[in-house]
Amino acid sequence: MSKRSTLPDWFMLILKRDLSLSFKKVATFIIPLVFFLIVITLFPLALGTENSLLSSLSSGVIWVAALLASLLAVESIFNEDYRDGTLDHLLLSGEPIFILVLAKVLAHWLVTGAPLLLASLVSTLFLFLPEGLLFPLLISLLMGTFLLSLLGALGAALTIGRTAILSAVIVLPLSIPILILGVAVIAAALSDESFFSYLYFLGAMLALGIPGLCIATTEALFINYE
Amino acid sequence: MSNFQVIKKWLISMGSPPLFFMWASKFLSWFYPISFLLLLTGLIWGIGFAPSDYKQGEVYRIIFIHVPSAMLGQSVYLMMAIFGSICLIWRAKLAGIFLRSAAPLGASFTLIALVSGAVWGKPTWGTWWVWDARLTSTLILFFLYAGIIGLYSSIDNKQKGDRAASLISVVGVIIIPIIKKSVDWWQTLHQPSTFTITSAPSMTSDMYLPLLICVIGFYSILLSMLLNRLRAEILIRERNTSWVQKYLNNQVRE
Amino acid sequence: MLKVENLSCQRSNDLIFKNLSFEVVKGENLEIIGSNGSGKTSLLKCILGLIEKKRGQISWNQRPLEESRTLFLKSCYYQGHQLALKNNFSVLENLKFSHLAFNADKKKIMSSLKVVGMAEFVHRSCSDLSMGQLKRLALAKWLLDDHELYLIDEPFASLDQEGIFLVASIIQKLNSKGCSFLFTSHTSSNINSKEILLDKYS
Fold first, then answer.
1. How many other C-beta atoms can be found within 10 angstroms of the C-beta atom of residue C107?
2. pTM to 2 decimals?
3. Residue C69 belongs to domain spanning
4. Which of A154, A176, A224 has the CB atom closest to B140's CB atom?
5. DSSP output for B194-211
6. How many folded domains does chain C comprise?
7. Which of A118, A142, B159, C114 has the fewest C-beta atoms under 10 angstroms from its C-beta?
């Protein structure tokens, strides 16, 4: 080997690779976004269009829809690579798999999470989100969806090649704290409290979750080869 | 040999399926009936003979089922996480099999706790269900169990299933305190009058003693059922080995 | 280089092979011949650390494999039954986004493609290529970087005469550069190599 590959090289390679793959298929951007909007739409259809009702439910419904969309979208993060043998290739490269997982989750989140944030803007119109809650909603979703993608990646690694619903059942109970915290940010803003303390909590979960979940996902990937 | 070395040797021998199977079979032959007796004693004493509570009347007797079941549901998950980490770190075969044996038991006890909690709630507070912190956490625990059971039963390769279940139970046990804290806190947001539907009445020793016996009885019956399920799973896994064939032949002959 | 001593491996409670010992020396090849189910793929996966070995010792450059796994993985190349190519990528992208391309610039990629005869398809999407062309692209990945040891699972499976000749010539070329091959197959191939019959070790 004439040049030793460095950690940033490996990270950027995987990031660029996964982003290039996603850009070739426009569906990867659009489908999670549309799923999110469909779920949002179901609520007025089911509960009626009374402004005050929808308004009071809005932050919770948007968060639940974002939760479901994130978890279901991240299913495919390992499946295709597993099917064509590319995952074997990457796992046997000798490079740190922890970084591989982080790069893949980041690439996935950039492609699905960012459109989700845009879609949540639209959903604030659909559900009549009260004034002044837009910023707390967006920032809580920004941090929360990344954490959810990480959790979802763990579920995806455990259930490679099997149904998405199994992964959802495994991961959804574990994502309940994220949901509670995320909605708390918005609720605090609604009652004019400072919501920053809850953001700090989300930040703490990110700080612990990123290393912890990436390590767990790495282990889960290797378990698939028994 | 020193005592410590004897214990260590016994522990290592317990890792071997045939030795564990033989030990468990012998142990269960006398322990199973005792645990059953303990459980029966506790339940009959508590439900039949303990004095009635001055606040809740006769209904509180469900506590003799509800409290031990809830304790068991949580203990089993903790044990699964401990044995799960043993399975992941040291690749102990039996530790992995433990998860398959324990998970349905834990799920069942959690379910019993949920149902008994609901049964308690109806006459006492008029509703079958209330979103208090304890019940909600127990419900989430049940979902966690369901996920683990779904995971390992969807994987054909048994060793792989064990390891996957071990990983998720270890991750779960780390996240469970976070879940509990957030649910507790969530409940204070939405229900300022913090009463728990399953708060235990202040108990005299007349009530406390049968409850203790119930708890011991439940744990004993859990141990018995666990060991029995382990034995069954060992037989299934090792069905092609000579010692299993010999054992089964002996059983048929008897 | 790679030394295996008394290796035993099991799959769902059955021993697939036991007490297997061999050594792969620099510049020489080793061929593992076995029938279906004799454990050829499991042997490779065991060496690579994907499967736990039941018993035995594997050492890489005189050090136990457990200590030097990362170094070992970085110096070896594995190809399994799947080609590890993404259909949505073009030929160039498949090579560019492989970690093997850390040390390969555009020139090296083009020369690898030329050796396998795929240079004219450099911007063609892989979904438009035939199976034979895809196999040649997989071969091009062998040449992107210098690897001391190549672990290939059935390199000659379902190849025509021309394909077999291409693989053999590449193996020969890499041998002369000091690389070794450990590969599996159903029957003895004409490659200059030591042979081990895996069925004898079950």
1. 8
2. 0.90
3. 2-201
4. A176
5. ---TTPPPP--HHHHHHH
6. 1
7. A118
